[in-house]
Amino acid sequence: MVTNPTELITSDKNTTVKLVKALLTQSRQRNKHGQTVIEGIHLIDAALRSDYPFAQMLLAESAHNHPEVQQVLSRLPTYTPIMTLSDSLYESIRSLGTGIDIMAVIKVPMLGLSMINEDCLILNDVQDSGNVGTLLRTAAAVGINNILCTSATAQAWSPKTLRAGMGAQFALTIYEGLSTQDILDYVQVPLLATSSHTDTLIYDHNLTTPTAWIMGHEGQGVSDELMQCATPIALPQPNGQESLNVAIAGSLCLYETLRQRNYA
């Protein structure tokens, strides 16, 4: 059994506890510190499997002897700081419901964009964290590694998006805070965007070569500037719905891309 290397923390005035609470709830603090928080065994396991470094591990006192927590702690590098909180203190800061009370502070990767000559997914001001997480999870599933996010897109590394992505972030290369001009300057493969104003159905378009799929804002869609540089592609909707949820539309596009290449 892994023993508890730290004293029990009971005060919400503790500096680390205050920081973690801020990282969980405030995007401004995540940007300021360049850190975020992952909660729960599943996300921590995903980070461990990717050899992603931890800045700090926190767990509730009652969780310390849980077999899955013990297994996680045994896999940590020996230099990882571990802090044990009283159950009431942990409960006061967590954003998840009832479960195995363990979380970790990690550094958010800050990547400089370089030329993209392979498949990528562009998130053009997709604002809902659930949609962003679903799209990241789908991209990871089909093997698209490069994700480019314009500046108004929900944070890919926020706790909510991390949960929605189920840890897909650790398998992806994610560029955030990009401008439209960054996309146009650095993406060297054809841009495709879904549109209801074209007769070109996705099933009739050749997707066997490297492609950049653009998914746009939930209400306004892809920006005019990007749309002017993209090939519009239609997803058939024979029952006449106005539009599909962006995460659903994006998943359909990515899986049709995969089907044409590997499962035709």
Automatic annotation (TrEMBL):
Belongs to the class IV-like SAM-binding methyltransferase superfamily. RNA methyltransferase TrmH family. This is TrmH family RNA methyltransferase. Residues 14-93 form the MRM3-like substrate binding domain. GO terms for biological process: methylation; RNA processing. Residues 121-255 form the tRNA/rRNA methyltransferase SpoU type domain. GO terms for molecular function: RNA binding; RNA methyltransferase activity. InterPro entries: Alpha/beta_knot_MTases, MRM3-like_sub_bind, Ribosomal_eL30-like_sf, rRNA_Methyltransferase, SpoU_MeTrfase, tRNA_m1G_MTases_N. Keywords: Methyltransferase, Transferase. It comes from Psychrobacter fozii. It comes from the Bacteria. The keyword Transferase applies.
